[in-house]
Amino acid sequence: METELDGSELGTKEYWDSSYTREIGNYKNHGDVGEIWFDEDSQQRVIDWLVKQKIDKQARVLDLGCGNGMFLVGLANEGYEQLTGVDYSANAVELAKNIAQDNQMNITYKVADLTQPQDELGAFDVVHDKGTYDAVSLCPENPKEKRSLYLATVEKLLSSADSLFVITSCNWTEDELVHSFAEKLVKYATIPTPTFKFGGKVGNVVTSVVFKKR
Ligand SMILES: C[S@@+](CC[C@H](N)C(=O)[O-])C[C@H]1O[C@@H](n2cnc3c(N)ncnc32)[C@H](O)[C@@H]1O
C-alpha cells in the first residue's frame, strides 16, 4: 500500500512562480543563481556518474523541472551539447535562460507542465529529475493521479530501451521509487549517496536512482 505525502505549498505552481520571481531579482541584482536543490554535491554526483558511464557528449539530455538550470550548466561544462530544460514556471525558464546566456551556453529551455501530455518535447537519451517528482508528490490535490501522469510523461520522453531516467529524491526511498515506477520502469543502477545512522538504522538523506523502460 502506497502512502501519499502530506500536501504542501511546494506542490503548487504559485509557490514556484513567486520563488523564481524573487530569484530573478536576486540574480539581476547580485548575480546569485539561487537554490541548487539538495546541494551542489548531489548535483555533482549525478554529473560524475553520467561522465563515468561514458554517456556520449551528443546524447540528448532533458532536465525535468529544471529550475535555474544549474544541472544543465554543469553538464555543458563537461562538454555535453544537446541540453534541454523544462519547467512549468515561466519564471524559472526566464532565470535559466538568463544564466545560460550570461555563460554563453547553448541550452534550450521550454515551459511545460509535466503532469500534462507533452507530445512536442521529443525523445531523449537521458531524462533527469532532481526534486521535481518530489514537488509533484506534494501537490495538495490528487497527488497520486499527478504522480501517475508525470510518470506517463517520463516514459514517453525516453527514446529507447537504453535511455536512462535519473532521479534524485529526498521524499521517497529507493524502494518506494522502484515500487511506484514498477509498471513502467525498471531499476538500472543506484548512484551512491551519503548515509546516516540513527537508532541503529542506516538511511540516506537523498536517493539517486537510475531507471530504464520496461
Ligand atoms: C525542488 S525544485 C528543483 C529544481 C531543480 N531541479 C534543482 O534541482 O535545483 C522543483 C522544480 O520542479 C518544478 N515543477 C514542479 N512541478 C512541475 C510540473 N508539474 N511540471 C514542470 N515543472 C514542475 C518547479 O517549478 C521547480 O522548479
UniProtKB/TrEMBL annotation:
Entry keywords, A to Z: Cytoplasm, Methyltransferase, S-adenosyl-L-methionine, Transferase
Chain coiled-coil ranges: none
Domain Methyltransferase: 56-192
Enzyme Commission designation: 2.1.1.-
Protein's cellular compartments: Cytoplasm
Broad enzyme group: transferase
InterPro entries (UniProt xref): Efm4/METTL10, Methyltranfer_dom, SAM-dependent_MTases_sf
Major site of localization recorded for this protein: cytoplasm
Gene Ontology CC terms: cytoplasm
Biological process per Gene Ontology, one example term: methylation
One Gene Ontology MF term: protein-lysine N-methyltransferase activity
Classification via HAMAP family: Methyltr_EFM4
Primary role: S-adenosyl-L-methionine-dependent protein-lysine N-methyltransferase that methylates elongation factor 1-alpha.
Family assignment from sequence similarity: Belongs to the class I-like SAM-binding methyltransferase superfamily. EFM4 family.
Official protein name in the record: Protein-lysine N-methyltransferase GF14906
Organism: Drosophila ananassae
Higher taxonomy: Eukaryota, Metazoa, Ecdysozoa, Arthropoda, Hexapoda
UniProt gene name: Dana\GF14906
